[in-house]
Amino acid sequence: DKEHVLRRAAPDVADSVALPTALYQVPDLKTVDLSWAGRLRPDHPSLAAISTAKVGDPIHIVRDGPSWMMQDEKAQALGRMAKSWSPPQGLSFVRGEVGAIVRWRKSDSQEEFRVHLHRDVWEVAVPELVFG
């Protein structure tokens, strides 16, 4: 069976060639606080910003105390990242965009948290992020 195996040496990578270092985080519901918008008061400006957001819109990630927030180009909060999420160590934020917008319902949330929710249905922006 050795007659059907082609063996060849892989070329060396030159020291001067920069290898890709970007880390892409695709949209994932586990990375966001799905109930954040559900807890906002009805007149909160973030609700209007979320309702006009579209997939592909640019976003920024900013630290807000212990949390990380998604903001649109006008610095309006579009959502909060999950408490378990943090940017990858050693890499800087390069860019982000709204990767998906999902509808979340009060009934999707755990029963003990439903008392804090002010609406039955809301939209959640889920980011697509690039670090490098």
Concise synopsis of the structure shown:
The chain is mainly beta and 132 residues long. It has one helix spanning 45-52, and strands at residues 23-25, 58-64, 67-71, 77-80, 93-105, 121-131.
Structural summary, described in words:
The mean pLDDT is 90. The protein starts with 22 loop residues before the first strand and ends with a strand. The protein is mostly beta strands and 132 residues long. A 6-stranded antiparallel beta sheet has the order 1-6-5-2-3-4. It has 1 helix and 6 strands; from the N terminus they run βαβββββ. The longest helix has 8 residues, at 45-52. The chain has one domain (31-131).
Average per-residue pLDDT, rounded, comes to 90
The spatial strand order of the largest sheet comes to: 1-6-5-2-3-4
The number of E-state strands comes to 6
Q: Note the total helix count.
A: 1
SSE arrangement, N to C: EHEEEEE
* Percent in strands: 25-35%
Low-confidence stretches: none
Secondary structure category: mainly beta
* Spatial gap, N to C terminus: 45 Å
Please give the domain count: 1
Outline the biggest β-sheet.
6 strands, antiparallel
Q: What share of the residues lie within helices?
A: under 10%
Rg (C-alpha, Å): 21 Å
Spatial shape: elongated
